Amino acid sequence: MNYYYSSDGIQVLGPCPLDKLLAGYRNGTLPDSTQVCAEGHQDWQPIQALIRSVPRAPQRPQQPQHSAGSTATVQQDSTEQTPREKWAMYLAMCAVGIPSLIVSGFLPESLKSVLPFAGWLAIAVIGTALAAAIMKPYCFRSILSGALVGAGALLGILFYVKLRIHFTGNATFFWLELMIGAVIGAVPGILLYYYKTDTPSS
Question: 30 vs 175, which has greater pLDDT?
Answer without folding.
Answer: 30
